Structure to design on (226 residues):
């Protein structure tokens, strides 16, 4: 069974932007989640240990629903940079896991942690020596307001798992105290569903041209198999 690695900056980013896609993958692939931070600033401008502990538990619950193995990489919320040390750490994990595909964030984000995470993911794939074989996909922020200039290359129909995606979102209770984030994600996925001619969809960009098969690539991109 092939491995899929999700690389994201904060607890809940996997649920918002790629949760439906991961749910569709959970019985077909081994899922491995690399979360760069514990979201220490999720409830305040200052990093707090209690916030980190709460959000860690929430992400652990989310990954249990996904059947994904979870690792935190101990970066600080709001202070994520694509420095050599973290890129090499992620590269070492990718060498061990040897994934078929890496799912990550989009570089043009209003949140700088998301932009840095996209750069870390691509750099780590290069450092791991997997650049010619691994597929890289960048997700649209599920709440819709952070990702800018996002022109999708493909859509994944998540209609069949959308109610389960909302369960993933509800795991992150401290970020959804008034329910508005779930409403925003629902609206975003419904909009993308309209574009893809289904009820709900997640939008993705491929880091590599989908028509440009490189040495060692499989004939069908993994997202097109879902």
């Amino acid at each position: 069974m092939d491995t899929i690695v999700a690389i994201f900056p904060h607890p809940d980013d996997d649920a918002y932007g790629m949760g439906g896609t991961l749910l569709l993958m959970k019985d077909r692939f081994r899922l491995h989640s690399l979360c760069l931070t514990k979201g220490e600033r999720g409830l305040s401008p200052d990093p707090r240990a209690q916030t980190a502990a709460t959000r860690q538990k929430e992400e652990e619950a989310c990954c249990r629903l996904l059947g994904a193995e979870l690792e935190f990489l101990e970066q600080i919320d709001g202070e994520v940079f694509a420095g050599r040390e973290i890129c090499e750490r992620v590269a070492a994990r990718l060498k061990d896991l040897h994934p078929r595909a890496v799912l990550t964030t989009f570089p043009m984000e209003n949140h700088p942690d998301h932009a840095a995470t996209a750069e870390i993911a691509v750099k780590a794939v290069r450092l791991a020596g997997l650049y010619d074989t691994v597929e890289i996909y960048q997700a649209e922020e599920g709440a819709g307001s952070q990702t800018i200039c996002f022109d999708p290359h493909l859509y994944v129909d998540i209609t069949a798992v959308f109610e389960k995606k909302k369960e993933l979102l509800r795991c992150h209770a401290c970020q959804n105290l008034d329910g508005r984030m779930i409403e925003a994600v629902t609206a975003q996925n419904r909009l993308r569903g309209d574009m893809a001619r289904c009820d709900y969809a997640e939008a993705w960009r491929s880091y590599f041209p989908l028509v440009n098969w490189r040495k060692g690539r499989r004939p069908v991109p993994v997202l097109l198999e879902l």
